């Protein structure tokens, strides 16, 4: 265990390096921070921190920089989540309140996160596997053609055209709409197939073919839309941190193009807690020079998806964690009210 003083020295090194982008020396630390000890003592503390792998000397200068291990200790033990100010919270709310549908919510969230953190923002769409059905609408377009509209509790809307095997009247359509919603509204997607399997038997023989076709389309929609989707924004922000990446930002950009990689980085959507992965904790080699801060969001107690940011390990962790958490909270509120 590090002594309290050495923890304070590590905190000061992280804060100064993040703020100045320059390796930190003992003289600068004693001048900028009230550590209560001499530069010689700070040098001894820095030597001990270096021996234990929390800081490193990037070149022959006297300065030190935090390692992945140092940032990890800083995040776990020394850094609180910086709360957003009143004006910042109002700005978040005003920006997101104008969204007209789920796609707009996600797009606005990506832009907002990228602006607040000046990092790359990643927002996962609410997963249908964790969603429930809010309503199924059926519209008659022609005697043998329907439109099926599936609306989820997270505001996601899916539309499908259904070509019926025979003409279907308005009365039968209203009956099917009512029976279908009485069974599936408020239920999880995974339960829907079981809940509707015997529904065709409730209809006259001449209508059963159409009812079966409508149900097949509904179930196909659930399967098709199970694929995870996400949106990314603010990639240009990485160019501000060129010197934070060992050789080039190309491996980072290539990794960000891989949706599977990003989904793994964000982690399981059901986990609503804050996750911070630093440097080599990211399994994908191209992202070993980055940190990922993510958190779950949802309209109830359970997270339906994740959002977060990707940036260099030299990151303002308290501020980034605060922004990510605040945005996730507002997105959850919007979904709950939509």
Condensed summary:
45% of the residues lie in helices and 17% in strands. With 338 residues, the chain is an alpha+beta fold. The strands form 3 sheets. Strands 7-3-10-9-8 form a 5-stranded antiparallel beta sheet, with helices on both faces. The protein has a 3-stranded antiparallel beta sheet with strand order 4-5-6. Strands 1-2 form a two-stranded antiparallel sheet.
Question: What layout of secondary structure does this protein have?
Answer:
Blueprint: H1 4-20, H2 26-32, H3 39-51, E1 55-56, E2 65-66, H4 68-78, H5 86-97, H6 102-117, E3 120-124, E4 133-142, E5 145-152, E6 157-163, H7 170-184, H8 192-196, H9 205-224, E7 230-233, H10 250-256, H11 259-266, E8 275-278, E9 290-297, E10 305-312, H12 317-337
Antiparallel strand pairs: 1-2, 3-7, 3-10, 4-5, 5-6, 8-9, 9-10
Helix pairs in contact: 1-3, 1-4, 2-3, 5-12, 6-12
Structure report:
The protein is of the alpha+beta class. Helix content is 45%, strand content 17%. It has helices at 4-20, 26-32, 39-51, 68-78, 86-97, 102-117, 170-184, 192-196, 205-224, 250-256, 259-266, 317-337; strands spanning 55-56, 65-66, 120-124, 133-142, 145-152, 157-163, 230-233, 275-278, 290-297, 305-312. β1 (55-56) and β2 (65-66) form a beta hairpin. α1 packs across α3 (39-51) and α6 packs antiparallel against α12.
């Amino acid at each position: 265990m590090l002594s309290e003083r050495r923890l304070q020295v590590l905190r000061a090194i992280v804060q100064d390096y993040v703020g100045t982008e320059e390796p930190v020396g003992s003289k600068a630390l004693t001048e900028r921070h009230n550590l209560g000890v001499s530069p010689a003592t700070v040098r001894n503390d820095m030597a001990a921190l270096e021996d234990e792998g929390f800081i490193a000397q990037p070149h022959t200068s006297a300065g030190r920089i935090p390692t992945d291990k140092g940032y990890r200790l800083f995040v776990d033990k020394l850094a609180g989540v910086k709360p957003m100010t009143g004006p910042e919270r109002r700005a978040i709310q005003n920006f997101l309140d104008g969204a007209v549908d789920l796609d707009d919510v996600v797009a606005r969230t990506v832009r907002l996160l990228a602006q607040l953190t000046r990092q790359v923002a990643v927002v996962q769409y609410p997963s249908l596997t964790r969603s429930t059905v809010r309503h199924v609408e059926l519209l008659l377009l022609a005697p043998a053609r329907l439109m099926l509209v599936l609306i989820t509790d997270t505001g996601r809307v899916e539309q499908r055209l259904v070509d019926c095997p025979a003409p279907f009247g308005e009365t039968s359509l209203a009956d099917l709409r009512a029976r279908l919603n009485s069974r599936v509204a408020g239920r999880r997607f995974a339960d829907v197939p079981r809940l509707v399997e015997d529904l065709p038997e409730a209809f006259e023989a001449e209508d059963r073919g159409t009812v079966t076709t409508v149900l097949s389309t509904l179930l196909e929609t659930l399967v098709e839309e199970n694929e995870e989707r996400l949106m990314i924004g603010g990639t240009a922000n990485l160019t501000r941190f060129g010197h934070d990446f060992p050789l080039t930002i190309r491996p980072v950009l290539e990794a960000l193009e891989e949706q599977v990689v990003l989904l793994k980085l964000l982690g399981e959507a059901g986990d609503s807690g804050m996750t911070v992965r630093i440097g080599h904790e990211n399994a994908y080699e191209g992202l070993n020079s980055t940190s990922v801060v993510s958190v779950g969001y949802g309209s109830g107690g359970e997270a339906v998806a994740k959002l977060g940011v990707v940036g260099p390990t030299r990151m303002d962790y308290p501020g980034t964690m605060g922004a990510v958490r605040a945005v996730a909270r507002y997105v959850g509120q919007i979904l709950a009210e939509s």
